[in-house]
Design a protein that fits this description.
Strand order of the largest sheet: 2-3-4-5-6-7-8-9
Number of domains: 3
Number of strands: 18
CATH architecture of the largest domain: Alpha-Beta Barrel
Distance between the termini: 66 Å
Largest sheet: 8 strands, parallel, barrel
Oligomer: single chain
Helix content: 25-40%
CATH topology of the largest domain: TIM Barrel
Structural class: alpha/beta
Radius of gyration: 28 Å
Strand content: 15-25%
Number of helices: 21
Length: about 525
């Protein structure tokens, strides 16, 4: 059986750049583009040349893609202007793009109110602009903005917009759910009606996630005949984001309803890099990966229920909807107060701590985990702290250093220029194992925990080289009980900039500083252990 080809169009570098807080540099764009090309995507939309200095510079030369088509985005020419007299369209034509995707109004209401022109003038601008792209020998596409809203209001005109682009030579016409308000049953109906009149193998789908249905809407459109899929890595995009390519790609390749009918440019080998690609993007944006993201999240194949853990080990295919390794992820059987012996054994095996299932130390470890979690600890998140705890039970953890005392001070005062500022300072007294002289360190920070972290990592003597590249990148506090004797749980996430590795540690105490300090200590000890540091 011959499979139909689906074409994947990534718009992370344009739509994704509209995400609140995201601002790609040229270097960011180049690295992300290379990452996307390595996945096997067909089109990589790099942005809008002429709209800003970054995008203009990015399109000055063509990236060395292995297979993807370098695509520029922009508007059709303005009504009343010729192609040669429209600066925006000329910037697109002057770019190094392989393909050019133009956007035009498909809703007659917007043609009248936003553009202030007639429906016929809008169609003429579309036809002239598409023809101008085709004349340069490049592939032309049209994004039909607000297509679904326009179709609901005036189906004949929305269809005429699409047909005009196809007649002018567009390879693709993309149906856009621009405000993300269309629901799957509406997409299914409307796309079905459109593909009865226009060829589906020249249609694409572009959805936003404002109702949480962008992926579902995209899949509904594919089932009704469209053959180009637009989306962004990790679902980046303005407002609630775009269709998540990180979810769409494995669904298309691994789910039988699609995998038996369609093929894409993504190979099984490339699919196994998907989790890595997702996390590289998060690192570039300085964001923690979303742990419950489908397919690629740390929790995507995790369980902490003992009965399920035991069953997964015996028959993973019926408990996991796809093999985690197919997308570059891994199974995680978490240790918590809901866990059983199977979780502990599986976690120990993953850590390289072989233990017999009848070893009495396993039950002792499980009992301690449950007791500590009853007191407020959370090891399903803080796996680095769990590894330290497990190793102390089974094989021991070297004692690299001990903290004799620490002090944290927060003071509000006037600085040298008379401004009222709040300053946090911390001092730490440390004894490195095997040495008799104490090491005193002090640091300031933008808060007491930041100051304490800085002081603790400032000078660990012979171990300092192992921790120079680590940084506290996330800090979460949860108050577990109310009242004046509230118990506080702190989760600290640390990153090693030399390796890109991240790990979480936990601390619990009625005192938030003490809980933070415990988590920081675990973080440093974990790094020393993983670096192979030798205790005296």
């Amino acid at each position: 059986m011959t499979k139909e080809r689906l074409y994947l169009f990534d718009t992370t570098l344009r739509d994704g750049a509209q995400t609140t807080g995201v601002d790609f540099s040229i270097d960011d764009k180049r690295r992300i583009a290379t990452l996307l090309d390595g996945l096997g995507l067909d089109y990589i939309e790099g942005g809008y040349p002429g709209a800003n200095d970054t995008d203009t510079a990015f399109f000055a030369s063509k990236p060395a893609f292995r297979r993807a088509r370098f695509t520029a985005f922009g508007m059709v020419k303005r009504a009343g202007r010729s192609v040669s007299n429209d600066p925006g369209l000329q910037a697109l034509l002057a770019s190094a793009a392989d393909s050019i995707c133009l956007v035009a109004k498909a809703w007659d209401y917007h043609v009248r109110v936003a553009l202030g022109i007639t429906n016929e003038e809008n169609l003429a601008s579309i036809a002239d602009s598409i023809a101008a792209v085709v004349a340069t020998g490049r592939e032309a596409m049209l994004d039909c903005e607000h297509f679904f809203d326009g179709y609901k209001a005036n189906p004949a005109y929305a269809l005429e917009v699409a047909r005009t682009a196809l007649d002018a030579g567009a390879r693709w016409v993309v149906l856009c759910d621009t405000n993300g308000g269309t629901l799957p049953h509406e997409v299914e109906r409307i796309v079905g009606e459109v593909t009865n009149q226009l060829p589906g193998d020249r249609l694409g789908i572009h959805t936003h996630d404002d109702t949480g249905n962008a992926v579902a809407n995209t899949l509904a459109a594919v089932r009704q005949g469209v053959r180009q899929i637009q989306g962004t890595l990790n679902g980046l995009g303005e407002r609630c984001g775009n269709a998540n390519m990180t979810t769409l790609i494995p669904t298309l390749l691994l789910k039988s309803d699609f995998a038996t009918r369609f093929e894409t440019g993504v190979t099984p080998e490339a699919l196994r890099t998907l989790t890595h690609a997702s996390r590289v993007l998060d690192d570039l944006l300085n964001e923690a990966p979303r742990r419950q993201a489908p397919y690629v999240g740390e929790a995507a194949f995790a369980t902490k229920a003992g009965i399920h853990a035991s069953a997964i080990l015996k028959d993973p295919e019926t408990y996991e909807h796809v093999p985690p390794e197919a997308v570059g992820n891994q199974r995680r059987l978490l240790v918590s107060k809901q866990a059983g012996r199977s979780n502990v054994l599986a976690s120990l095996e993953r850590l390289g701590l072989a233990a017999d299932k009848d070893d009495p130390r396993i039950q002792t470890l499980l009992d301690e985990v449950k007791a500590r979690e009853s007191a407020g600890y959370a090891y399903e998140a803080a796996e680095a702290s769990f590894e330290l705890l497990a190793r102390r039970h089974l094989s021991g953890v070297p004692r690299y250093f001990s903290v004799d005392s620490f002090r944290v001070m927060v003071e509000r005062r006037h600085n040298a220029v008379g401004e009222l500022v709040t300053v946090s300072e911390a001092t730490v007294k440390v004894f490195v194992n095997g040495e008799t002289d104490a090491l005193w360190s002090a640091a300031e920070g933008n808060g007491p925990v930041n100051a304490l972290d800085g002081a603790l990592r400032k000078d660990l003597g012979r171990y300092q080289k192992h921790i120079d590249s680590i940084e506290l990148v996330d800090y979460k506090v949860r108050i577990l009980t109310g009242g004046t004797e509230a118990v506080t749980r702190v989760l600290v996430e640390t990153m090693d900039h030399a390796t890109g590795e991240r790990w979480l540690t936990v601390g619990v105490s009625p005192n938030i500083i003490d809980a933070s300090f415990e988590a920081l200590l675990d973080s440093i000890n974990y790094k020393l252990l993983k670096s192979g540091a030798v205790a005296a």
